[in-house]
């Protein structure tokens, strides 16, 4: 093997490694495909279209509480892959418990215009919270972020905490640093193991949440399955350690990635409702 050819192979492998790391963050997969109809779950959605600050047309679904009294509104920042037509299934049970919820797609996902990036995802998150506050529920909102959505939700809350009233922040199976996750994923396969430093270099944390202790006094709940093979539980522990009180962590021993409400006989659904019913700190 000549030195030039060896260098070429290294460059190709480096490109493969960096692409693999990036793909764990943005994978809409047939962006405009509709996977499931809410009617199949006994729900009726309201189609919502709103804009971010760059005037990208974004799409979401509003699900009205079906039980009185209406106890509040949850804004769901969903995880990676597919779009809201799959991720809405996470909370099909919530309207019957007295809570409305709103789920939206990031740019490039579903019917939302534009392309996903840390910057555009953050703009979408901010636009979603502001839209719900201004158009649906002026009360303090519950923010729930799962996987990639947890990172976006956390950054959004840090930027809007003084502008939109917030009641709770729930971070499910998520992470703080894009770089750290990329490096961890690179370390899990022999082909990319040597490229861990490269994975660190090609990813940027310019839009990663920092100084997350500033979430306080909004109550924060960290949820992480201890058998999660997608986002290592160590990242949930890191978030919990850096948050300030009031905070709580649920370590789901039988949990995998983002399945908290479908594991252990669905017992965590009632535990979650009980958690939301506690006295709240309003900011």
Question: Can you walk through the features of this model?
Answer:
α1 packs across α5 and α3 packs across α4. This protein is an alpha/beta fold and 283 residues long. The relative contact order is 0.13. The chain has an eight-stranded mixed beta sheet. The protein has helices spanning 3-23, 84-87, 118-135, 148-160, 178-186, 196-202, 233-242, 267-276; strands at 46-51, 57-63, 72-77, 99-104, 141-146, 166-172, 220-225, 247-252. The protein has a single domain (3-276), classed as Alpha/Beta hydrolase fold, catalytic domain (Rossmann fold). It contains eight helices and eight strands. The chain starts with a helix and ends in a 7-residue tail after the last helix. Helices cover 33% and strands 18% of the residues.
- Mean of residue pLDDT values: 86
Oligomer designation:
single chain
* Low-confidence regions: 1-24
- Separation of the first and last Cα atoms: 64 Å
Radius of gyration: 19 Å
Count of extended strands: 8
Strand order of the largest sheet: 1-2-4-3-5-6-7-8
Q: What is the overall shape?
A: globular
Which CATH top level class fits?
A: Alpha Beta
Q: Quote the CATH topology.
A: Rossmann fold
Structural class: alpha/beta
SSE ordering: HEEEHEHEHEHHEHEH
Considering DSSP H and I runs of 4 or more, what fraction of the residues is helical?
25-40%
Count of the separate structural domains: 1
């Amino acid at each position: 093997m000549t030195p030039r050819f060896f260098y070429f192979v290294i460059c190709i492998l480096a490109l493969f490694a960096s692409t693999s790391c990036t793909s764990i963050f943005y994978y809409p997969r047939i962006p405009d495909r509709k996977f499931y109809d809410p009617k199949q779950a006994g729900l009726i959605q309201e189609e919502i279209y709103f804009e971010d600050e760059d005037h990208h047309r974004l799409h979401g679904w509003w699900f009205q509480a079906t039980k009185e009294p209406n106890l509040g509104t949850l804004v769901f920042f969903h995880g990676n892959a597919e779009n809201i037509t799959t991720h809405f299934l996470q909370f099909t049970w919530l309207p019957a418990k007295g809570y409305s919820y709103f789920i939206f797609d990031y740019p490039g996902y579903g019917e939302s215009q534009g392309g996903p990036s840390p910057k555009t995802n953050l703009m979408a998150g901010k636009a979603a919270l502001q839209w719900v506050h201004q158009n649906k529920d002026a009360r303090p909102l519950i923010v729930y972020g799962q996987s990639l959505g947890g990172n976006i939700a956390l950054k959004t809350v840090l930027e809007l905490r003084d502008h939109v009233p917030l009641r709770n922040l729930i971070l499910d199976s998520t992470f703080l640093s894009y770089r750290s996750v990329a490096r961890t994923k690179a370390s899990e396969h022999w082909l990319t193991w040597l490229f861990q430093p490269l994975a660190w270099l090609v990813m940027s944390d310019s839009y990663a949440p920092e100084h997350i202790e500033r979430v306080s006094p909004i109550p924060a709940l960290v949820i992480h399955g201890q058998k999660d093979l997608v986002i290592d539980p160590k990242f949930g522990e890191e978030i919990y350690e850096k948050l300030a009180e009031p905070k709580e962590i649920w370590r789901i021993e039988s949990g995998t990635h983002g399945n908290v409400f479908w594991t252990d006989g669905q017992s965590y659904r009632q535990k979650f409702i009980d958690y939301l019913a506690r006295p709240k700190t309003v900011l």
